[in-house]
Each structure stands twice: as C-alpha cells, then as structure tokens.
Amino acid sequence: MSQQWTRPATRTEIIDQLVEGVDRYNPSNVSILEDYLYHQIREREYDCLANLAILKLYQFNPDLYNPDVVINILIKALTAAPSPDFNLCMALLGERQNLPLSDNEPDPLIPLLPSLRNLSTLLQTCRFPAFWESYQSEELSPLRENYTVEYAGFHDSVREVVVRAVKVTFETIGKERLGHYLNLTGEDLEAYVSSLGWSLNPSTGVISIPPNPDNQIKATVTRENITLPSITKAHRTFRCLARFGDGKALGCLSSLLTSFEPYAILVEANTIILVLKN
Amino acid sequence: MIDEATLVVMQQQMAQQAAFAQIPDVVKRFILHFYQSILDNNVPEINAAYESGWNKLTEKYYAKTEWPDAELIAPLVNDDQVFLTLYRELYYRHVYSRLSPDVDDRFHSYENSCELFNYILNSEGPVPLDLPEQWLWDIIDEFIYQYQSFCIWRSKVKSKTEEELNMLADGAQIWSTYSVLNVLYSLIQKSKINESLAAARRGESPEAIAEIVGEFGSRPLYRTLGYFSLIGLLRVHTLLGDYTLALKVMDNIELNQKARLTACHVATYYYVAFCYLALRRYPDANRTLVNVLNFVSRMRPYHTRSYQYDQINKTADRMYALLAIGIALSPTRLDENTMIGLKDRYGDQYAKMQRGSEGLAAFEELFIYACPKFISSSPPPYEDPDLLALYIQDPPVDPPQRHLALFLADVRSQAAVPTLRSFLKLYSSLDAQKLANFLDEDEEELVQQMMMLKQASRSISRAGIDGGRLLDGETISTSDLDFAIDGNMVHIVESTIGRRYGSLFIRNTEYAQRIFDNLRNSPLPIPKAASPTVAEAPTTPIAAAPKVAKVTWAKA
Asked: What residues does the PCI domain cover (chain A) (predicted)?
C-alpha cells in the first residue's frame, strides 16, 4: 500500500499517535477519531487506517456504536476503489449484533447496507453507468439526502475512481462513453476533461489520454537473472563451471577437462571422448 | 469428640491421600525431576522433560484422563507456586487437546494464564526463570488458542446449561479480548522487543541494543516472549478480521530472516499470507506461501518424529489450499515441486477455480477449509435475559461465513477474467464489438468488463521492495497478458518468459560433475612411450590416437 494510504500527509501528529500506538484501544479516544472522520469529509481528505481504528473501537465496545459514523466511513471507502477498503471496513463491521440502539431508534445502517454493498460492487467492477443510475435512484434518496450531501465533492471522488480505471485501460476514448462513465455532458464534460489534461478532438469527439506505463503496452521477454554467488553456494562444481557462461554445460565440460593432461577431451554429440595426446 | 467440620476435613485428607497414592511412582519421579530442573534453570533438562517425558507419560497414563490436580502434587514440590502454575499450564493444555474442557476448565485455565503472566510481568526485576523456546512459543500459542476456543464456545448460546449461563453472565472479563490484548501488549512493552528489533535493523551493536532494552529485555525469557507476542497479535488481529492492523504489528519484523522455531515460522507465514489474500495482494500472498512451503518440505526429514509434525503438516495442507486460491486469482508460475504438491492435494479444485464463476464452490470449499477460525470479539448479551432472547431469535452470521461472503464477493467481481483472457490470448488486436459478439455481450458492458480486467491485472506488491514493512508496496502488473483500448480497438500483447537457464544449467552441471567423477575414478589408458616422430607433428592436439576411451553421456 502506498505511503499516502498507510500514512496520509494530511494526518496530524495526534491522530498518528492514536493510529500507531496502543492508545487506539482506549474508548475515550473515539470522539477524536470521529471528529477526524468528519474533517476528512469536509476537507476532501482520506485516511483509511484512522477510520478502521474507529470501527475497531466499535468492535470491542459495542456501546460506542454510532451508525451515522459507520455509514460515512463506508461512503468514504467506496470511493477508494479499486482498493479493497470497503471490504476491510465490512470485515470489522459484521460482528454487530442486531440489538436495539440505546435510544431505541431504528438503526439507519441496516436498510442502507445492501445498497452500499451494491454500489461498492458496481465501482469495483467498473460498471460506472449502472453506479450512477443506482446512486440517483429514488430508493437511495435517504443516502443522498442524509449523508452524501454532507460529503464535500462526493461526485468528484467517484469520478476519480472512473479516471483511475479509464487512464490505465484506454489510449483514446469516445466522448460519449466517457461522459456516461463520469455522469457529465456538454460543457461540464469538456471542462472536466481539460482539467485532467486530456485532449478532446472536437471534430471526431475522441479524447486522447496521455501515455502512461499502463496504457502503453509492450511485449516483454522476462529473463531469468542468475547471480554468480547464488549458484556457487549451491554446488561446489559451479565454482569451476559458472565462469564459462550461460549454461552450455557441454562446452563447460570440455573446457574444464582440458586440465586433464596428458589427455585431451573431445565432446561429440552425447559422447565424451577421452584422447591421449601425442 | 470430633465435630462434623473436622470430620469433613479428615475425610477430604484421606481422599487426597488415596488419590496421591494412586499416582504412579514413575509420574511422581518425573514431576520431582521436572521441578528440580526448573529450580536449577537447567534448560536442556527442562527441554527433555517438556518435549519427551511429559508426552511419554501422557501416552502411558493420561491418554484419556487428566493429569493429577496441581493441589495433589503440591506436597511433592514444596508447594512451589511458580512450578504449580507452570504445571497447570501443561495440565490445561492437555485437557484442551486430549479431552473436552468444561466450563470450569475454561475459567480456570484463564485464571492460571493470568497468574503466570502476572508473575512474569509484575515482579520487581526479571524473574529468575529460563524456559525452552518451544515451551514459550507453546504458552503464547495456547493462550490464544484457548481464547479463540472460548469465543467460539461462548457464541453458541442455545446449548448452554443454567449454570453455564450464570457463570457467563457474571464472568464477562473471562477471556475478554481486551484482557488477551493486554497480556500480549504488556509482554511486548516489558521486553522492549519492538525497540530492540528496530535497533537491530538500524545495525546497532549488541551493546547498544542491550542498553536500549534494559534489564528485562536482555533476558532470553522476556525477549522471546516479546517476540512471540508480536506473532500472537498478528494472529489475534487476523482472527478478528483486522488485516491491516495484523500486518502493522509486524512492522519491525523482517520476514526473510532465518527461522527461529519451526512452529513460529510456519504460523507467521500462514497468517501473513492470509492477510495478503484478504487485502487482494495475491502476488504477495503467493510469494509468502511458496517460501514457507519450500521451507516445510526442506524441514520434513528433520521433523518426522517430532510431536509437532502433524500440526505443521496440517498447516502446510491449508497453505497449499490458500496457494491454490492465490494462483487461481492471480496466475503465477510456480516451481515444479510446489506445483506438484498443490496438484496432489487440490488438483480438482484448482482446475475448477481457474474457470471463474463456475469454480465458486471450489473457492468456497478451500477458503472454509484453509481460513483461520474467525471469532467474534463481543460476547452474546448473557447479562441481559431480554437482549439474550432477541439474540437467539436473530443471531449474527457466524464469523467464518461472514468473512467467506466478503471473500466470495471479491471472487465474483473477477469472475469474467478467465474467459476474457482466453479470448484475448488469441488476438493481437480485436474490435470491441467483435469480442462482444463472441461473448454474446453488449459492447458497452464488455468495455466495462475490460476495465475491470485491466485493474484485476494490477496489484500492490512488495516484490520490488527491499526490507520495508509488510504493508508497504507498489503497484505491479501481475499478468503476462496486457492490453489497451484505442477507441474501439483492443490491442493485445503477451509477455513471454525467456528460456530458463537456471535449472538447465544446474541439471547439466550435475551430469558434468557425475561424469567428471566417473572419469577420475576410471582407470586411465596407459600412455605409450613418447616417440619423437609423433611429438614433432602435433598439428591437432586431439588426434585420433590409438587409445580412445569412450564415456557415454547419460541420456537426458
């Protein structure tokens, strides 16, 4: 996992100590981490490990459980695709027993969870048009109205997931297709494309994506690298044979055996001929 | 006159004496000797008693019953509480492995573990105790095993008796996750093992490290327990489904180091590999598994008689299953031996898994067989009968099933990969519409699948990283097939692997060595007396001379 993922540059010293140290188990620290989550949501930051630390505290202390926080963590993790963040959160979550909340209110996570899972699958499998359709459906209005409305740049975060997938797969892509993926049309789409530094050919409607190591394919031949020390360790014979090159053992053998004075060695097909000189 | 209370005490004493008399003499002698070895801190003797004496007597006298109660043998060992705690450690471990522990055993084994760790952790200076590494590993290993076993037992509400329900309602702290983590973290902190490992990595001198770790950490007992506690944390976090934290506690451990203890080495690699699998870092999982499976097969000749042999073999079988999953999801060339080992065990499942969604049942079978026994850290609400009734009505999903569902979701999202790959392999460029027709799919759907395929052929991996921490990694390409889409045209290239010289070289060199030895050992033709005429005309040094010895090259 990249440095940015394991320790984002935006993480403060206090949070870092919590995430890295044993203080992460202290239930009284949960509010610090929860505040940090809301800060991430407002400021377009993301810190998966800090959010997992919240879920860990909920796992060990069911009393602390706050469904709104969990939903926000899952929404944040959605837009980390294709990274497995959503599943990492789910792995810590499932222990939740179906017990009533302390205020006897219904748990808002329960009806939302299947939809969130579905949205995650759609992003993981790059079915972006289906994602937008599902996300904007009537059924998911509670998710939009109560949660993602607070999430600064949620749409942009999803578009970043799209960009990550398109960038590695395409050299050029039709404007209409990309528009479907990004859920943008007309001037919005053109503005977004140019903000990425991608170029649109207005007459053909084809967008060129700058070359990167993933969309520039080339056939390679992988060669095995054998280092001399690794061979000499293996067998005493290699010490005398290894210097003769790339494994043509027959040649090696004949060279080796020239030291057999007064005999000379001839290798012919699969027969070694030992010849007395003179 | 004798009153009733005295009578009861006397009866108890008599019963005890009778029970004491029942203990075979050889067992009594063993305990005395064991006790003396521990008093003397004689590690080789302790080791012999621990690895062989105990097991032999278990086979002979206690294959189906408990060892004598600690209270019963107390007079033999001067009522030495430290020895009795160690003795109970073995006593309960025997109950867990050979018999079935009842609720009292479970509670008491917890209390005894606490006593042992309190003794080690809360003394003013380091305790004057030296135990063999194997035993220390087993103490930590068993501590976590009993915790795991308790969590699983605790989660089954329906089968509990009235008495058990009461005990569970009152004993919420027994085997609680916090108490288990507390022990492991305390051992880590007391031994300053993280500081010591970090200093060793920086290349500091042994004196400087001794300075850093202080009086506790420089004792083998603490250092070893500290190290094993790190592996213990790796295990506990994995059991609870926290894969990132599990790998994070290993930050200071370098995996490629020499194995200190076979059981520890194998466990470490198993859990690390499983975490990588859960993080979808398949290349790292595969590499870790191949590495340890090679280690196990190299170790096999030395372990045939060891009592851990079975355990290690079972873990190896499960690791082959994980490897089959790993290479089905991210095809990797394996060395011949490992591939044979894998196909011997899971050839059928492996073939099915390579076919994508058809193989879902095989993925499920191998995952459930090979995964750790996941647990749930929070107990059912035993203290509240109303909530408990609700819990019984609507219980949470079993932890292994829950983790299986998450894993299968990953597999399902990759299900189209094998089919797509097999078509792409046939072309160097292909129109997306045409490919969609082949597959009987909508073109737009297909292009989206292609993006998924592309991302599935990239993974985070530690392959190119020297040292560093287990969570570190860079994105690498994991497939020999690569493609890019230009408008609607899919361009495909395949990477090939050049001829492998390594094994050819080794094989031929071995032939060469054999022939060389043969030649040296065979009698040489007798040289003729040198004649001047021949000596003057050596145009070719290798002339077809009269004396010719032939050695036939072994047929390849």
From this structure: 46-225
Integer Cα distance of A40 and A212 in angstroms: 30
- Dihedral in degrees, nearest 10, Cα atoms B430, B433, B437, B439: 70
Between CA B258 and CA B272 the distance in angstroms is 16
* Dist. CA B121–CA A143, nearest whole Å: 50
Nearest to A222 among B485, B488, B497 (CB): B497
**Angle (CA) B254 B260 B265, round 5°:** 70
- ipTM for the predicted complex: 0.83
Q: Tell me, yes or no, whether B284 and B391 share the same domain.
A: yes
At residue A136, the 3 state secondary structure works out as coil
Instruction: Find the DSSP H helices in B172-308.
Output: 177-191, 193-201, 206-217, 220-239, 243-248, 262-278, 282-303
Domains in chain A with CATH codes: 3-96+108-155 (1.25.40.250), 170-218 (no CATH), 228-276 (no CATH)
- B391 and A219 within 8 Å at the Cβ level: the answer is no
Same structural domain for residues B379 and B464? no
Window 195-254 of A: residues touching B by CB (8 A cutoff) are: 206, 214-224, 226, 231, 234-235, 237-238, 241, 246-247, 249-250, 252-253
| Structural domain span for residue B486 | 416-494
Q: Cβ–Cβ contacts within 10 Å for residue B498, how many?
A: 10
The verdict on B407 and B424 lying in the same domain is: no
* Residue pLDDT tens, chain A, 278 long: 677 888 888 898 899 998 888 889 999 999 999 999 999 999 989 999 999 999 999 999 888 889 999 999 999 999 998 899 999 999 998 766 666 777 777 888 888 999 999 999 999 999 999 999 999 999 888 888 888 888 888 999 999 999 999 999 999 999 999 999 999 988 999 999 999 999 888 888 899 999 888 888 887 776 655 554 444 444 444 444 433 334 445 555 544 444 444 445 454 444 445 455 54
Q: Which of B466, B494, B522 is the last residue of a domain?
A: B494
Say if CB B505 and CB A225 are below 8 A apart. no
The encoded tokens of residue B434 equal 């045409």
